[in-house]
Write a structure and sequence with these properties.
The complex is a heterodimer. By secondary structure, chain A is α/β, with parallel strands linked by helices. Chain A has 13 helices and nine strands. In chain A, the strands form two sheets. A five-stranded parallel sheet of chain A has the order 7-6-5-8-9. In chain A, helix 2 crosses helix 7, helix 7 packs across helix 8 and helix 7 crosses helix 13. By secondary structure, chain B is an alpha/beta fold. Chain B has a single domain, classed as Metal-dependent hydrolases (TIM Barrel, Alpha-Beta Barrel), CATH 3.20.20. Helices cover 30% and strands 24% of the residues of chain B. In chain B, helix 2 packs parallel to helix 3, helix 4 crosses helix 7 and helix 7 runs parallel beside helix 8. Chain B is globular, with a radius of gyration of 21 Å. The chains are: A alpha/beta, B alpha/beta.
């Protein structure tokens, strides 16, 4: 069915979007209704994305800048596509390390960009808190696309959308998050989101890859994968960075894979219909076997699709609030 | 403000001089730049003609504070603080003697630089300035600096500032060599490997914020090692800044064992904790990091008990260029000169530390440790004196900060206790306008 521009506008005016936040800096601070609203909006975006005409013009005339201080092809493409499907003008800015070396601070960059009057700013930075700092210095809505080892809210939201589509609801599920919890912003955002929505969370990792204070983070802690996976509904694997594989945190790749890599033998401890997830990019043979990654329980590719959808939802929700914040400095 | 040498009579005051165990009502006479005498209670005070009489109306008269942890931007970062601007901030905070950090650019590791600082101080500073010199060349932690020559040039003691010396052999040789000159070694201990690239206190807070943590063990393993090395070298050692109760215990044990050691802390670690970092506030980034509330409470107890000897401001002016960054990339350090006394009085108002004990840690203790004839109201001592009202509230306003930098961790906070008058060498250099 062909939808013309006029009806596209109507499509979005049937229901006002209630989202009481100017930015999306983290999952922390979101309430269950906020999360449900974004997931519902994400469902609609999935439908839009599966149509022949993938345009939904709610961001027409809006400017979105993707500001990536840390290279990430996947996340950046996902945000770019999301913005374009909503009709925004999208500009990608990769801030090379050289301009940082030239002495331009994060704040200088923010001020320069702000002068270009963007409406939406998607930011990734290697330092925790950097996106929050930047958000205080600009007049537009800011989306955190990952800040150091702090948060990666759209990843947690896309994971939640994927789970909800398969399991109906998040509350009451048992979710195992496995691997490098210590250095993972994905783990932090997921722990906050899943516990806010009433899921039970287990973390499974060698103790060297657990963050300090993990026992007080509202999760059950396991170091034995077989015990930890017993009866879970969802298995979320995390990527192990190459520099942490050989000696500093774990002795070797083969030892890590033996005890903490997800293979079909270990997966058998989870519920038979348990979902296998991974935020990507995967290290096959390090944290996950190829067999499981490409197996029947894997929803890893679906996560990528949900990524675009949830980013459309986030951009739309924040753009809908822009008039409200217009006169707030 | 007077710049004459008129005698000054401070009457109707609560005189506290921890060095002489005095805490009583009375009046104090300053004559020819020195303390001419104290008359307690209602005994008549004779004062010469032309004396300026100040009725203190019950306010406290105490020795001017001696702050042994002050970073000024001279040389190398004069846009952040000069000896002149630091003096203005100091007198407003009741500090009459500052001991400057060797961590400048260039590092104070050459007698000519000590000489430079003393001349700059003579020409531009209004408070007493005593420079520390670097323990190791360039603060590098490997080569001993010229302790004898630096001391002769006027270095009051030796410190590597916040740069811990990892090499135990270097440190023990330094202490052994410094002993020949009766020089005090000031060291801020830390196990560098354990501290790693941490930027705040290790633990749950750091984990949620996604910031690298410095475990408390990084500090007290360093202190425990240092205590063993002190026993080996039989040197004079002052722990620059400790933040964990385990460090207190290690130092107390060494004292009980007869070692010549003392312990210091910054006002920040006595009045703030890791939660004050909130959403990545870089003004609360410190070295060592602010610890938990439980640690802070135990450090306050250690002050009250006498296990920590010296409180310093750890004044470290930083500007927008160094602070307005993501937390991990921002420089550590906070202003402290103007808020040292007001923040310290929080411990008095909360009933945790007696006023005379607080003042001892801020006056006679640091002076004695450095061998300075300061921090006391003994008859004949240089008249470095403050009058303050411990009950007068004030708000720390950014626009009124006298330092060239504005990185106070107490911005917009209410402090109770305000300096009314600051006298240096008999001259009134500061009078509160309100």
């Amino acid at each position: 069915m062909h939808i013309d521009g006029f009806s596209m506008t109507n499509e979005t005016t049937h229901r006002p979007i209630e989202f009481p936040h100017r930015h999306l800096l983290g999952i922390e601070g979101l309430q269950p209704p906020d999360i449900n609203m974004l997931l519902d909006l994400g469902e609609e975006a999935v439908e839009v994305s599966r149509r022949e005409d993938k345009q939904k013009g709610v961001l027409r005339g809006r400017t979105q800048i993707n500001l990536f201080f840390e290279a990430s092809t996947r996340t950046q493409s996902s945000f770019e596509l999301a913005g374009k499907r909503l009709g925004a003008d999208v500009m990608n800015m990769a801030v090379s390390t050289s301009s940082v070396k030239k002495g331009e601070t994060l704040i200088d960059t923010a001020a320069t960009l702000n002068a270009m009057r963007p409406d939406l700013l998607v930011v990734r930075h290697s330092s925790a808190g950097a996106v929050q700092l930047l958000a205080r210095k600009v007049g537009c809505a800011v989306v955190n696309a990952g800040d150091g080892t702090h948060e990666h809210p759209t990843q947690a939201l896309l994971d939640a959308l994927t789970i909800r589509r398969h399991k109906g609801a998040l509350g009451g599920l048992t979710v195992a998050i496995c691997g490098d919890i210590r250095h993972s912003r994905v783990a932090r955002s997921n722990i906050i989101l899943l516990s806010t929505m009433g899921a039970r969370i287990r973390v499974i990792a060698p103790s060297t890859l657990m963050p300090s204070g993990i026992h007080n983070m509202g999760v059950e802690v396991f170091t034995d994968m077989k015990k930890g996976l017993q009866g879970v509904d969802v298995v979320m694997m995390l990527r192990l960075q190459r520099e942490r594989m050989s000696g500093a945190f774990v002795p070797s790749v083969r030892e890590y894979f033996k005890y903490h890599g997800l293979d079909s033998e270990k997966l058998a401890y989870a519920k038979p219909d348990a979902l296998v997830m991974h935020p990507g990019p995967m290290n096959r043979g390090v944290e996950i076997s190829a067999e499981v990654a490409d197996g029947a329980q894997s929803v890893i590719r679906e996560q990528v699709e949900m990524g675009v959808a949830i980013r459309m939802a986030v951009l739309e929700a924040l753009a809908a609030q822009l008039p409200k914040w217009k006169d707030v400095p | 403000m007077t710049s004459t040498n008129q005698p000054i009579l401070l009457k109707n005051a609560r005189i506290i001089d921890p060095a002489n165990n005095i805490d009583a009502r009375g009046s104090l006479l300053v004559e020819a730049g020195r303390v001419a005498g104290i008359a307690l209670a209602d005994s008549a005070t004779g004062s010469p003609d032309g004396t300026i009489v100040q009725d203190c109306e019950g306010a406290v008269v105490a020795p001017g504070l001696v702050d042994i942890g002050v970073k000024v931007g001279e040389p190398g970062a004069e846009h952040r603080e000069t000896l002149q601007s630091a003096s203005r901030a100091a007198v407003a905070g009741g500090i009459t003697t500052i001991v400057t950090s060797p961590d400048t650019d260039p590092v104070i590791d050459d007698p000519a630089l000590v000489d430079f600082l003393l001349r700059r101080a003579r020409d531009t500073a209004s408070v007493n300035v005593f420079p520390l010199a670097a323990l190791t060349k360039g603060l590098g932690g490997s080569e001993m600096s010229e302790i004898g020559l630096l001391q002769e040039a006027g270095a009051i003691a030796f410190s590597n500032d916040t740069h811990a010396i990892s090499n135990s052999q270097v440190l023990v040789r330094l202490m052994t060599y410094a002993r020949d000159f009766d020089a005090l070694v000031i060291h801020q201990a830390q196990d560098k490997d354990l501290a790693g690239s941490g930027v705040m206190n290790g633990g749950l807070r750091a984990s949620w914020l996604g910031l690298g943590g410095v475990p408390r063990e990084a500090e007290f393993i360093g202190i425990e090692r240092d205590m063993r090395l002190v026993a080996m070298a039989k040197g004079k050692y002052h722990a620059r800044l400790i933040s964990c109760p385990q460090s207190v215990r290690a130092i107390a044990a060494a004292k009980a064992d007869g070692q010549d050691v003392t312990a210091g802390i910054s006002i920040n670690h006595l009045t703030l904790n890791e939660n004050d970092i909130g959403p990545y506030r870089t003004f609360h980034k410190m070295t060592p990091p602010l610890r938990t509330e439980e640690d802070r409470l135990q450090m306050v107890e250690a002050i009250a008990r006498g296990d920590i000897d010296i409180i310093m401001s750890d004044h470290n002016p930083q500007d927008v260029e160094t602070k307005r960054h993501p937390f991990a990339e921002a420089e550590a350090g906070a202003l402290g000169l103007e808020t040292l006394l007001g923040a310290g009085l929080r411990l008095v108002h909360s009933g945790e530390v007696p006023l005379s004990r607080l003042l001892a840690c801020l006056t006679c203790n640091p002076a004695r440790r450095l061998g300075l004839n300061k921090g006391t109201l003994t008859k004949g001592a240089e008249a470095d004196i403050i009058v303050f009202d411990p009950e007068r509230p004030w708000v720390v306003e950014k626009s009124k900060i006298r330092s060239l930098s504005k990185n106070t961790p107490f911005e917009d906070e209410l402090l109770t206790g305000k300096v009314l008058t600051t006298i240096v060498s008999g001259q009134v250099l500061y009078s509160s306008d309100a």
